[in-house]
Every structure is written in structure tokens, then in C-alpha cells.
Amino acid sequence: MVKRALITGITGQDGPYLAQLLLSKGYKVYGTYRRISTPNFWRLQQLGIIRDVTLIPADLADMSSLLEAVTITDPHEIYNLGAQSFVGSSFDQPLLTTEIDGSGATRFLEIIRHLNKNIKFYQASTSELYGASRTAPQDENTPFMPNSPYAAAKLYSFHMTRVYRKAYGLYTCNGILFNHESPMRGLEFVTRKITNSVAKIKLGIQKDLRLGNLETKRDWGFAPEYVKAMWMMMQHDKADDFVIATGETHTVGEFVQEAFAAADLNWKNFVKVDQRLLRPLDVTHLCGNPRKAERELGWKARVTFKKLVEIMVKADLDRWQKYQKGQVFPWDAPNYSSELDVISRTSAREGRKAPTGIRGLLQRLGRG
Predict the structure, then answer these.
(1) Is the domain of 170 the same as that of 311?
(2) Domain span at residue 140?
């Protein structure tokens, strides 16, 4: 029997890696994507699997499109990776984040409950759930203390996934994945912003790199390893929730140092701290305890922090070098400008938080 899997958010970082893994295991893979004016399929193209995946337009805010996607594909497994996944943007768009990241999972759970209770469901949870927790390392029993609209929305979907497992006997599991990066990471995330900037600086395309808080600590792993953990959870003999992490923490500053070192550059000559990039509330220290996953799933992170940074820097250097030679290939950076002047409700000006709401907008436009 050929297994069928439906992946939401298949155009993001994790979706293509998961699709590639499932295809290698003989799955028929379907993926949902949100219709936008410019299609965002470059990751699937870069991995060479776009013709092996059946794409379905759907939106996590639209129950009918999700119902249609499940009806058409009749999946054995659903991996809900779709989300508004940028923490900073969740402060600018808290209601949208709540609708997508919070209620989206519940829509799927209701479809499964009424349509086919045998469908297995994976919910992409996040280490941001721990937020302001002072306990470290964090495991499956550590209390959650979300510190952003993104984390609060994800907390709702986490608990609904658990509730439907207990109340209705569904096979539903939460993967509490700590930060995981790769060359496929979006440019709005600090890790890829760093490695992409390092490559441009190395090649003389960019002069400096502006960042916010360099002291923030994260547990960083390699995305292809983490999607394997998702699949392993869905093959486990019972549905459960698992922390997926390396068990090590490093600061943003350490990531910066390793990235510039990988390009034989001194980071101190190029990095500038910009107060406007600070968040209203930040999570200062996240470190996961993956012992349960190691013990019950046999999963363990293999790629080291240093190796991860080197992989990302090398990939961005290779891309920019190809670009300079006029080569055409699927890629995101040429279409992304870090120099755009975008008004953000969470930006800070001259070290102070910018006014928010209508009053703040009028002030920024010179009318208040």
C-alpha cells in the first residue's frame, strides 16, 4: 500500500525537506500552498522535487478549502506545518497570526473527527511556547509561558491537538521543535539574514550587517534532521508530544562570529547594533532537552552548531557567486530587499518604542 501524506506550508523551509524525505520512503505527497500574486515554489524547485509533489491551493483560515484538500487526497498522515511563522510579524499582525496559527489546527482536527478518524495528525509546535520560562533546559513537562502573539497562538493549537487526542482518541501529536535552520530558511529570519549578509559582504555587494539583540540564546539544529523527527513521531506506536532539540545553546553573537569566520572575515568590522530591530518582548534563553525523543524515537541531532553555520554560509556564497556569473536558478535573495523602509508597530526609534495604533501611525506620517 502506498501511503499518502498531506503537508500544509509545503513552500516554507520544512515542507520541502519533509516532502523529499517522504518521497524517498515511497509516499504519495500532496502539499497545500496559499495563492499569492507571485508563486513561491523555489525551495521545491531547488530540491528537484516540484514535479513529484501534487500541489493544492488552500488556506488555513478557510475551512472549505481544507475540507476539499483532505477529501481530494484522502491522506493517511497530515503534517500541519503551515503558519505565520515569523515572531516579529506576529506583533504587527496578532489577529491574523491567531487565526492561522491558532485556529488552523482546530479546523483540521474537526475535519478528521468528522471525516476519517484514522488520519494521523502532526502539529508543528515551537520552542517559543516556553517564552519567559526560567527553567532550562526545557522538556515536555516544563510550563509554557508564551511571550509573543505567535507563541500564544501556537499554544492554543498545541492544547487543541492534545485535547482531541484525549477526548476523541485521534492520533495527534505535537512536535515541540526548537530553532532549526538550513540554506532554505527565509531571509526574514535572523540566521539566514546573517549568512546571506556575510556572503554579500565577502563578495563586496554589501557593506555592513545591522542586527538587534546579540545576546539572545537559542538551541539551533539542522532542519533536514528535524523533519525526520516529525516522521518518526507519526510512526511511533502511540501518539505523543516530543521536544526536538540539540540540548545546546548559542547566542546570536556566536552565530555571527561563526558565520564571518566561515568566510574568513572579522565580524567586528561589519556588524552594527540597530535599536529599531529590537522586539517589544523577546525570549532570551531557549534550550531543549531531547532525551524523550532520543529514548522513545531513537532520534538524535547530529549536525553541530559550527557545521550548521558553515553549511548556510557556503550555500549563500555559492548562490551569490552564481548570480554574479549570470546563472539562472531558483532562489529568493534577488527578490528581497533589506533596504526597504517598512513601518513596523514594533520598531524602536532613538532607543524608544515607536507609538502604536492610529496615533502612532499619524505621528510617523507627520500628521500627529
Answers:
(1) no
(2) 4-182+219-244
Residue 117 lies in a domain: yes
Q: Cα 229–231–235 angle (5° rounding)? A: 110
Q: Under a CB-based contact definition with an 8 Å cutoff, are residues 40 and 32 in contact?
A: no
Tell me the CATH number at 133. Answer: 3.40.50.720
User: Catalytic annotation on 8?
Assistant: no
Active site residue 126: yes
Residue among 17, 73, 122, 128 flagged as catalytic: 128
Distance CA 366, CA 126 (A): 39
Tell me, yes or no, if 128 is annotated catalytic: yes
* Whether this model's pTM surpasses 0.85: yes
Choosing from 130, 150, 171, 226, the catalytic residue is 150
**DSSP category for residue 288:** B
Which of 32, 126, 142, 191 does the annotation list as catalytic?
126
With CA atoms as reference, report the closest residue to 147 among 286, 281, 278.
Answer: 281
Residue 345, pLDDT score: 54
CA dist 231 and 244 (Å) reads 12
Q: Over pLDDT 90: what percentage of the chain? A: 79
Would residue 363 count as lying in a domain? Answer: no
> Could you tell me the pLDDT band of residue 132, with boundaries at 50, 70 and 90?
confident
The identity of residue 152, as a single letter, is A
